[in-house]
Amino acid sequence: MMTSSYDSVKGFQRGLDPSPLSSNMSTSQQQQQQFLSTRGSKVKAESNDVKDIVIANAKEAATIGIQAVVSGAYLYPIEGIYYLLRHPHLWKPLQRPLFLGVVTSFVVTSLMFFFTYLPQVAVLTLTNGPLSFFTAIPLVLGESATITLFVARMLWLAPALDNTFDAVLLEQGHTALVAEGREIKGAGSGKRIGKALSAPLNRFSKQGIITYLLSLPLNAIPLVGTIFFLFYNGYKSGPNQHARYFQLKHFTDAQKAKHISQNRGSYTAIGTAAMALNLIPGASILLAFTTATGAALWASDLEKKAGATVDTSTSADATQDVSEVAKKIEPDHQKLL
Fold first, then answer.
1. Which of 174, 202, 329, 332 has most Cβ atoms within 10 angstroms of its Cβ?
2. Is the pTM of this model over 0.70?
3. What are the C-alpha distances in Å from 182 to residues 177, 303, 307, 333?
4. Which residues pair with 192 in a beta bridge?
5. Span 41-48, average pLDDT
6. pLDDT tens digits, one per residue of 51-100
7. Directed axis angle between helix 284-305 and helix 132-152, to 10°?
8. Handedness of CA 135, 205, 80, 242 (dihedral sign)
9. What are the Cα distances from residue 305, in Å, to 49, 58, 333?
């Protein structure tokens, strides 16, 4: 009888003792909770990192945007138009490339509107509704300008742009600088550019083309999207406007990067203005030359501000004074700094 009672008590105690299975389940739950807690902390940290990166990039973009507006460098492509109009002798070497460019631009733009305008309108209708008839226009114009410039620069445009850039620098009195990249013929006011001593630069990289094409859908957003499209591509392509200048200066990659960093807002401004001008139907090639002219005038101003010697015998424009654009923007630039 006592033995039976003792066995009953032991059995009851065994029922109170945790089994190995119960212990393992408890440990597993603790490990799972610890894993989820650790993972949650990592996700939260990564989320904070992404947020910080977005905020930092937004602040940087805002800073560059302000610098671009203050710099006034977006006026140089406009000044390039007036400069070429005032110097008709600069047009003579441009007649053939301009003719080829206008024909190419007209053909490409016409074909793009004929084959791609309505399909893109149909796609944009899903997001823009009736506005798609308008928002598709900058898309097609941007695509047409890209194709036109790509074909032209691959075939004949690069040497002609370098010639224009050098001719403007020579007229501004920078004989020594131009001589770093080509022969100089004649003397005094009869000086003119001769044979190039270096290969023409390819200002149209594959990466630039891909970036441009990938950003084209931004134009689907009315007004704001087009502004972002121009600004983003201006930021990316702006330094290419001075590719020839860097070549003449024999800048190393480090020197070029430092110079661009110090003038990032200005390069964004001139790049954005050039992108906006490229959207004018049928005029992208012509405006490539006027923009190259404006870029050369800016390079001249940079040289003069740096104290470079100016050969005043080359032309009436060859003075130690900076260009009219620099005179206009300098007071405002200093006022806002």
1. 174
2. yes
3. 9, 18, 22, 34
4. 185
5. 59
6. 666 677 677 677 777 877 788 899 999 999 999 999 888 888 888 888 88
7. 70
8. positive
9. 42, 32, 15
| Residues 78, 280: Cα–Cα separation, whole Å | 14
Residue 41 lies in a domain: no
Number of domains in the chain: 1
The 10 Å CB-count burial string (b at 16+, else e) for 239-259 is: bbbbbbbbbbbebeeeebeeb
Element (H, E) at 304: helix 284-305
- Tokens 């470079």 — which residue? 308
Domain contains 47: no
Among residues 161, 150, 320, the alpha carbon closest in space to that of 245 is found at 161
pLDDT of 245 over the 90 cut: yes
Q: At 183, phi and psi to the nearest 5?
A: -75, 150
Residue 329 maps to a domain? yes
Task: Name the residue type at position 150.
Answer: F
Instruction: Classify residue 328: in a domain, yes or no.
Output: yes
SS (H, E, C) 77-123: HHHHHHHHHHCHHHCHHHHHHHHHHHHHHHHHHHHHHHHHHHHHHHH
Q: Name residue 112's amino acid.
A: M
Mean pLDDT over 251-272 rounds to: 93
